[in-house]
Structure formats: C-alpha cells, structure tokens
Here is the input.
Amino acid sequence: MSLVTALYSGLFYVATVILIVGLALRIKKYAQTPAPLKIPTMPAPLTETGVAMRMAREVVFFESLFKSNKWIWIFGYLFHFGMLLVLLRHLRYFTEPVWFWVNWIQPFGKYAAFAMLAGLLGLWARRFLVDRIRYISTPSDHLMLALLVGIVMSGLGMGYLVHTDIVAVKGFFLGLMRFSPQPLPPDPLLLVHLGLVAVLMIIFPISKLLHAPGVFFSPTRNQVDNARERRHLAPWAKQLEAGER
Amino acid sequence: MADFEVPELKEYPIVPKLKEGVMAHSAPFVAAGKFQTPLGYPGELVDNWKEVAIDKMGELLGKFRSLQVFLDACVHCGACTDKCHYYLGTSDANNMPVARQELLRKVYRRYFTFAGKYFPKLVGAADLTEEVLDEWYSYFHQCSQCRRCSVFCPYGIDTAEISMAAREIMDAVGKGQKYCNEIIGKVYVIGNNLGLPEPALKDTLEGLEEEVEEDTGVKVRFPLDEKGADILLVTPSADFFAEPHVDGLIGYGKVFHEAGASWTMSSKASEAANFGMFIGSYENMRKIALRIREAALELGVKRIVFGECGHAWRVAYSFLNTLAGPFDFLDPRYPVPQHICEFTYNLIQEGKLRFNKEENDHMKLTFHDSCNVARASRMGNMEGGQFIIPREVIKATCNYFYDMPQDTIGEATFCCGGGGGLLTDDLMELRVKGSQPRMEALKRVTEDYGVTNLAAICAICKSQFSKVLPYYGFTMDQIVSVHQLVSNAIVMKGSEQEAELAGETE
Here is the structure.
C-alpha cells in the first residue's frame, strides 16, 4: 500500500468517526437539555402536524431567511441546494450497483457545482461588501468559505480540467467501506479535494456547521402553540415544584 | 429638550451605516444591595465573580435548550443585522442582534467549546473580563426582548433568550439592574409594581365608580377582593391611575357590566406584570406568577382574565399554566387565562354589546402590535388571532381605522422602544432612539391617512409612547388604550347615552 493510500485511508476513518460520534454527542446534548418554557415564535402552529410543516418550510425553503433578506436567501439557497445535488451525485462513488435515481440526477449534479460555487462566492462577497456583515465576520467565517470554495474548485478542476481515474477513486472508497483498502490515485487535485473534505468532516461537530442539526432543536421553531391547554414542565422545574407543594 | 440627538424620521426606512460604541455609555442604574437580596441575589459584585458567572452560564446551558442551541447554531449570515429597532435607531454595531449575542457567545466559546479553548482568535472567543462584564451590562440592557430578530433568523435564534440568560448571570454575580429588581421587590412586599397598597386601590376604584356613574348614569362596579366572584381580573397596576391606562380599565368595567359578569380584582395579585421574565429568572417569574394562583384560590373565582399588558400576556398565555398550574379548580369551559380583548371580542361576536362608533369620530386610529402579544402569545382559537382580535375590537368601536405599513405590524411589528425592563428614565436616550422605526411608521399613516391616534394593549407601550411621542413632534395624548375606545363607544343599557340615541331616532 502506498503512503498516500495509507494516509488517506486513516484520515477518512478518523474523520468519519469524529463526524458521527461528534454529531451524535451534540445531538444527544440538544435532545437531553430541557426546554422549560413554551417559546415558539408566534404565530405558531397549533398542532404537531403544523409544526412539522413549519420545520419543513424552514429546512426546504429557508422560509425565515426569505422573509429576512433576499440576497442572503438566493446565495444561501444556491449553495445549499447545489451542495445537496452534488452530494447525492457523489453517492455513485459509494454504491455498487449505482442506485437508479442517482443516475437520474447525475447531469443536474454536475451543473449544481456551479450553483454551489456562485452561492458561496455571493455569500463571501457580502462578508466584504456589506458593512454590517463585515463587522460580524470572524476569521473562521472566512476560512469556512475558503474551505468550501476549495472543495468545489478542486472538484470542478477534476471534472473539467485534469481528470482523475474516477474508477480507482470509487474502488478506494468501496474498499474503505469494506475494510479492504484499495490504492488511491495520487493526483494532486484529488488529494486536495479529499483532504479538504476530511477537514470539513472533522470540524463539523465543533463549528458553526452545527446549525444543521441545531435548527431541528430550535424551540422557537419546533414547539406547538398549546401552552394554555397543556403544562410544559421541565424535570428540574418539577423538582422545584415538588420541593414546595 | 434632549441632551442627545433625536433621530430623524425619513420618508422611507433606511438602514444606517454602523458605528462602533456610540451607545456604549448607555447603561441603567445598578441595583443597590437592598434591591438584590430580596430576590435571592448577592448585594454587590462578589469577589469570585468570574467563577460564579461561568458556573451560572454552565448551569443555564444545562437547563435551557434554547440557550445551548442558540449559542451553537449562529452562522453569522447577517439576516438579523437590520432588524433590531435599537440598531436602526442608534446605529451602534453591538445593537445588531448577532453582535449582541456575540457578547455572550464569545465567552461561551472560550469556556465551553473546543474551538474556543484552543483557537480563540480564530473563532472569536474571549476571556471574561471586567470590560466584557461592562459591555454585557450596557448592551444586554439595550435589548427589549421583543423577538423581532427571532422571526427573521433562519434558525429561530431569539436574542431575548440570550439577554435573559445574560441578565440572570449578572444578577447571580451581584450586578443587577435597579429598575427591574426594585419593582420585583415591591411586588413581593406590596403586591404590585407601583407599590399601591390596598387602601389606595380601593379609593381609586371607588373614584372610578363615581366617575362612570356621573358620565353615564349607570352604576358600574369596580370590585376589589370580592370572594365568590366568577372572574378574577388581573391587570397592570398602571391601569389604576395613569392616562391613558385608566381609561382602559374603565372600559373593562363597562364590558363586564354589560355582560352581566360577576368579577373582581385582587389586592394580592394587583399586578399583571411579571418582571421576573425580563431578568431571565425562572424562580422569580414563578414566584410572581404563583400570587395569581393563590388569589384565584382565595377568592374562589371560576375564570381568570388579563387586562391590557404585553409581556404580562406572554407570561399569562405562554407560561402561567406551566409556572403556576394546573388550574383544574377553574371552570374548564374557558381558556386559562383569557385576554380582555378575547372576552370583549366574544361578546361582540355574540351581539351582546352595543356601540355608537361616532363617539370615536374625533380620532383616526392605527394599532400598535405590542411585541410580546404579537410574537410570544396568541388570542382566540386561530393562528394569528392576536393580530385579528384587537383590530376587530377597534373596528367595532371606531369608524376610522388604518394599519401602519405591513413590515412594521403583525409578526414584524416594531417594539415601542421601552419594553423588556428598559422603561426607566436612566435609559431615556435609548428609549427615544429605539422608538424611531415605530415613529417613522406612525408618521407615514399620519401623512397618508390623517391618522391622529395610536391604540395599544400594553402598559409599557402606553407609558413609553406618552414619553417619546413629543420628541418626534407628536403629542403625548395621541396614545390610547383599546378599551378606552370601547369605553367611549359602548352604549350601556339604561345609560344616558342610550337615552340620547333613542331621542335622536324618534
């Protein structure tokens, strides 16, 4: 096994474990921390179904962001849904035989990378051009965008400029999944692409990327408006009450 | 008239260019020891305050999912940056909701996250220092907890939750705010925010009975502590004496009278407000809420109705059942509690109230959605009822009603500038500047439709508007209570107004 193959095999195992365990721990924390009061941002749905719909609109259409700022919405939407298509398209490198619907979206997935890039560059431009957003941007905000742009550019580079042996790449990942390492082509663009992806996976559970699981746990978005009908007592509040009555 | 510059009202809203630190000097008086200790807080800044603050932050992170998720989830997208009325009115960078949150978040990162512990500069983490504490004290008292930012945040991050947590931490280290904590102390000792004792209340209410009889010829009662009444009315203590609040109280009394309802107020729960919410203290909020339960039990009432008060309605609607329930001893046919607007609206729907709208023809009205009613509670049985019901009550009692621009009402309503425990003279500059977006919207309908008056259902909004309207060229009496409009127009059976109308039609 070459050094490159060994390094990247190890890197992806480590990154995957960090991503999954890190996220699981974070989600567990969110789930176990009580929300002691009803604080949905009103008007809020009166039923569980209504809340599911509200959450779906938030996650699928970025409803609140749409209300808020059309520029951020357009760029954010281009980026996220471009990324979704790109990620789904990438499933072909992890499945054998390739699922039929992954083949369907293949052509869209290829162009989605450009949408993703446009979205990222738009969001990044706002961090320089809008004084308010410039003020709130931290170095990590810029680096996060740089990381994502790097991933997209290196990916596009392989698609349109310097092709890599994609069959071998697929062999490498299928090998990882079956715990029988296969050689990874040592193409510079590929190594950059995969290296940056691994970095993204590693920082996911310790960065603002936690907005992804976080939105589902946001009490202002996931609570039913039924406070008059039902008590909403946190375990610690119940103890407080038991101590007195 | 002011030692600061009153913002200009523009033709169309303009998002100002940000300026750093222009409101850093604004901070309310710090609570003296005598106002801290009755609430269970240290009397002055404790020696090991950093440790205490970090411990408290850890405790709150474990108790409130909102805080934990909100401190993690922000991506600095900037959607909220132009949504806060204090930012729009002051242009201070730290009054952008995200920047305000960052004041707490940077400390959270430093002490509670991997990235902040090892790469503080990279992710914007910072040690808790005296300067940071001062910043907290200044800027977490420049948030009226109005939740407008939470409407526009893609993750629903609510700066109100952050500023409540920050205030609770500051109270825990001994740096509380005088205005809120002194008032909570008064509630514990006397029963209401204004410190009106039972004899004074009684006197006031008797005065109201005489006044209404003189005006209408009808004996409308304003009962206090009457055991066995059906309805307990809990209303902000401002309703007992100040204009235009008291005109609202007269309105409630007339509605109850016409409905033939047996009702009472309580000297024990002679206050709807619950400043425990403003300081982010679950324990104090609960203790204040429990007075209402006790009063209801002692008086043996069957229903609880709340008067016009914004944050009180949030605590009543969203928290009362949780904090002081279950209310299984009350009549299960009615929601607990009900808002006076719901009560009046239902009677209007049933055709049980008669109005002569012409009595309000000297006014052209608009309605100010109070933030806690709009974004933190509901009325009626439909989503958004909190926007519909008060407007329907106004339209039933007035001929001329016009809404302010859509992006300044409903769920996007602008705070009056004085909510969230900031309604104190030591924050006058902030209050005036923070009301700028609302004043701009009011000016718009004044010019477009000739609107003369602004109706509200919140004691804080009413007091705030009485104070700030004159700074913008309006007059203090342009703010009215919704039930003042009801009071003006209602035609009670057997009243002089009824006789007059009968005379006209003959």
